[in-house]
Amino acid sequence: MSEILQYIPGKSPLHSLNPVTKLLLVILIVALCVLSSHITFLCFLIAVLVIGAFFSGLINELKNQVHFLLLLSFFLVLLTSLTVQEGEVLFTILPSHNPSEAGYGITMGGLMFGVLLSLRFVVMITAFQLFVVTTKPSDLVTGLLAFRLPVDYILMLLIALRFIPSLQLEAKRIHEAQLCRGYNPGTGISGKIMSMKPIMIPLVANSLAKTQVLGLTLDMRGYRARKKLPFHRLVFSIGDAISAILLIVILLTFALLHFIFI
Amino acid sequence: MILGSSLSYTYPVGTRPALREITLSIDSGELVLITGPTAAGKTTLCYALSGILHHELGGTLSGFLSLKNKPIGDYSGIAELNRHISMVFDDADAQLIFTSVEEELASGLETRMDSKQEIEDRVKEVMEICGISHLKERPPYALSGGQKQRVALAAALAMDTEVIILDEPTSELDVMATGRIIEILQDLKSKGKTIIIVDHSLEGYRNVADRVIVMGEGMIKQEGTFDEIYPEQQGLMRALYTDPDLIPYQHPENSSEIVKIDSLFKKYGDIEALSGVSLTLYEGEFIAILGENGSGKTTLVKHLNGLLRPDRGLITVCSLDAATVPVIELVKETGLVFQNPDTMLFADSVREEILFGLENIGDENPYQTISHVLSLVGLSGTETTYPRHLSRGERQRLAVACILALKPRIIILDEPTTGLDEKESDRMMELMLNLQKSGHTIIMVTHNMRIAEQYAGRIIAMENGRVIGDYHNLRGHTS
């Protein structure tokens, strides 16, 4: 079973970066990819991320996502090509009743907008994924604390991340238990939805049953009214300095592409 | 250390008191074992002693309870009490909050220790004591049930409090691991810690517990030294298959084969879970499969109804090839009851719960089957009850009924007595004996040596994915 969004232990350059640096990089990359509508720049960002993943030995993690990203891109391009009518018509789907007007068709503008959206999603998802899998959850917390987020919310995020794989396992166990009773997931959309009940109800009920002990444990360990969390202090290293340079390079490229070579 | 008098408590949603007129005194450095049937108020008593009732849960509380001569209610809340008391709850998984074992142990130390070095040293020390150093970087989901229990225990021990309260800390541990936990507790006791422990498996505490408190219906029913209360041995504290009295298994002459397994191999990633298991099981047998945690017992039985498929090897169940036949066909022959009934209960009533399986296999006369299986498991009259309102023992029997309704020839039980007290465990086993008499083949995976010795006719021992012993059990009811 593959675990979603879980930390992968390692000692790669990305792992050793300070969580705050990584968080800043992610925020910057996400912000720039939203701001920019320059396909070359987005490709440049993807290249940066892929190179980062390559040097951190995480290229396989990215490969596992390719299938999902392609599917997502396909639907985005399909959606925009059908809805956005802009620029040169590549081919017509519905001819217009008035011969002097262009019909309804796939346009260059729609197609390009789809590609642009897809690239943005690829950048955002990849950046977030690389950040989460290379950052120990406790470091993630330290990073978020540096941004002055309240402890309660950070704990909430931490616990949510911790329980994702547990829920996956529990769902698998429940699925097996129902198979033993001849459970047969239905076909078609309505069948699929109806057949969720035997899995979802035990899953939710069992999770809710854990909340009391979870809360009491937090209390017993003294988390009530705590202003800070334990774990590591922030240490900046040579890697963080290199990241600062990388940050400048990304910004420069952004500026070059957007303000000089327009 | 702890003094309570006439302590009574009713939960906010409860109608009957969970604790009635509890009067007790626990001295510093004492190890007290609390036992009793399910719903006797053991967990509630633990909550009371740790201050949770006074400070967290609400409900109606009367009587007096003090810690170190100061009423528990006068402490400024759990935040102050946790400097004196730590508690291990019975649900190990829900107690692991952080994403690695190391962080879990460090989490309670920050308010107690100043330097990072001090915290690291303490974490290292506790991991060594509890034998979990090799799990240091593991996230909770990659731990087994037994490992989770040891981590939860370690997290409580790390805080180095004077009082340690443990609610069923060994329920998922095998004989060896339980023995190790008891050694740790003995060591802590010799260092002057006060230990209060709730447990069902008792024998290990002989000569360790200073006192035993037997609870029932929210009251203290009996109190005394271990030898006073249990003069006779309570279950076994050794692995049954090391017993020289067992005689090697020989296949019965006039029974027909029901399961045949030949050189079965199964890998999970790089870990070999089954390495060459060969076994023949005969119709009408009552078999217990024993082994330490992680020996491959559950993996083996999941092959019998197609939940897992072998990497290599042959497996035939009721003349069906269990490596290829669809699960839906196999479940009509082999019914597997999971360890925790809550993994399957989802319907709004007991009747609908059983009906689910019957509709899946297309039973012609479902309502008759339902009342038949309910009477078999002793749950007649509960047809309209909401399944999750039943007690743990009743839910376990309902889970058996759901499987029985499919009329399988083989019934497999995975750890059928976890979470059940002795009385409920015996009741479950009596039910299995009756089913065996009516022609079913019973296979149970367990680490409860007492029920294996008392009920199973054949004992199969597993270790590291291999069968290391196959015996007749002459002491079992069935032989």
Descriptive notes:
- The complex is a heterodimer of chains A (about 260) and B (about 475).
- By secondary structure, chain A is mainly α.
- Chain A has a two-stranded antiparallel sheet.
- Chain B has two domains: about 230 residues, P-loop containing nucleotide triphosphate hydrolases (Rossmann fold); about 230 residues, P-loop containing nucleotide triphosphate hydrolases (Rossmann fold).
- Chain B contains 16 helices and 21 strands.
- In chain B, a hairpin with a 2-residue loop joins strand 20 and strand 21.
- The mean pLDDT of chain B is about 90.
Using only C-alpha atoms, the radius of gyration of chain A works out to: 24 Å
**Which bin fits the share of residues in helices of chain A?**
55-70%
**Structural class estimated from helices and strands of chain A:** mainly alpha
The major β-sheet of chain B equals: 7 strands, mixed
Distance between the termini of chain B: 51 Å
Overall pLDDT confidence of chain B: 88
Strand content of chain A: under 5%
Highest CATH level, the class of the largest domain in chain B? Alpha Beta
Enumerate how many helices of chain A there are, as a single number.
10
> How many distinct folded domains of chain B?
2
- Percent of sequence in beta strands of chain B: 25-35%
List the helices and strands and how they pair.
The complex is a heterodimer of chains A (262) and B (479).
Chain A: H1 13-16, H2 19-35, H3 39-55, H4 59-83, E1 89-94, E2 104-107, H5 108-134, H6 137-146, H7 151-179, H8 188-194, H9 197-220, H10 238-260
Antiparallel strand pairs in A: 1-2
Chain B: E1 2-10, E2 19-26, E3 31-35, H1 42-49, H2 52-57, E4 60-67, E5 70-71, H3 78-81, E6 85-88, H4 92-95, H5 101-107, H6 116-129, H7 145-158, E7 163-167, H8 175-190, E8 194-198, E9 211-216, E10 219-224, H9 226-229, E11 247-248, E12 257-268, E13 271-282, E14 286-291, H10 297-302, E15 312-317, E16 320-321, H11 327-330, E17 334-337, H12 350-361, H13 366-376, H14 392-404, E18 410-414, H15 422-437, E19 441-445, H16 449-455, E20 458-463, E21 466-472
Parallel strand pairs in B: 3-8, 3-9, 6-7, 7-8, 14-19, 14-20, 17-18, 18-19
Antiparallel strand pairs in B: 1-2, 1-4, 4-5, 9-10, 11-21, 12-13, 12-15, 15-16, 20-21
Helix pairs in contact in B: 5-7, 6-7, 12-14, 13-14
